User: Which sequence fits this backbone?
C-alpha cells in the first residue's frame, strides 16, 4: 500500500542505566516501501561512530513485495552483515560497520507505519484503510563465535501473542 512501510529490524536503544545516545546507535533494517516503486526494498545499517549517527543504506531495484510472502533474512556476525531475499544473498557489508560499530545485543522489532516525509509517504490514501502487514513466521538465531555457526534460539508462527518475546506498541514517531 503506497504511503506505508513494513519493516523488521534489530535495534539497541540503550539500557535502563544509559540514556539513548545516537552516537551509540546499533540497528540493522529491512524496510518495504511501496511508494518507492523503482526500489521498494531498502536495507540499512544505523550505527554510532566518531561521535555521530551514521547510515549505510542500499535500495534493492526491481522487486515487487506486494501480495506475496517472501523470506527475508539478516545475518549479523563480527565479520559481516548480510541480507537475503528468498534464499539469495542480495547484500553483504564487511568492515567497520559490521565489526566495530554493530556490537551491542539488539532486540528484534517489526512494525508497520505511515511516513510523513516525501518519497516514502507518497501516495497515501486513507480511504483504502484498513491496511495490514503479515508476518507468517520469524526465527531468531544466535551466532557461536567458536564454531562460526548459527543455532536457532526460537521460532514464532504467530498462533498466539507470546509476550515473553514481543512487546506490543501503539504508535511511534519517526519524524
Assistant:
Amino acid at each position: 500500500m503506497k504511503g506505508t512501510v513494513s519493516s523488521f529490524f534489530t535495534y539497541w536503544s540503550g539500557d535502563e542505566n544509559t540514556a539513548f545516545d545516537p552516537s551509540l546507535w546499533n540497528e540493522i533494517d529491512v524496510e518495504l516501501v511501496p511508494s518507492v516503486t523503482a526500489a521498494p526494498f531498502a536495507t540499512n545499517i544505523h550505527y554510532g561512530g566518531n561521535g555521530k549517527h551514521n547510515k549505510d543504506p542500499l535500495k534493492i531495484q526491481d522487486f515487487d513485495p506486494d501480495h506475496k510472502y517472501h523470506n527475508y533474512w539478516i545475518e549479523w556476525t563480527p565479520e559481516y552483515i548480510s541480507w537475503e531475499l528468498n534464499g539469495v544473498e542480495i547484500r553483504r557489508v564487511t568492515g567497520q560497520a559490521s565489526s566495530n560499530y554493530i556490537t551491542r545485543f539488539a532486540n528484534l522489532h517489526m512494525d508497520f507505519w505511515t511516513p510523513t516525509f516525501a518519497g516514502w509517504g507518497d501516495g497515501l490514501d486513507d480511504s483504502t484503510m484498513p491496511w495490514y502487514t503479515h508476518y507468517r513466521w520469524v526465527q531468531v538465531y544466535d551466532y557461536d563465535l567458536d564454531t562460526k555457526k548459527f543455532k536457532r534460539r526460537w521460532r514464532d508462527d504467530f498462533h498466539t501473542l507470546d509476550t515473553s518475546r514481543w512487546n506490543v506498541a501503539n504508535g511511534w514517531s519517526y519524524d
Remarks:
- The domain at 5-156 is CATH 2.60.120.200 (Jelly Rolls).
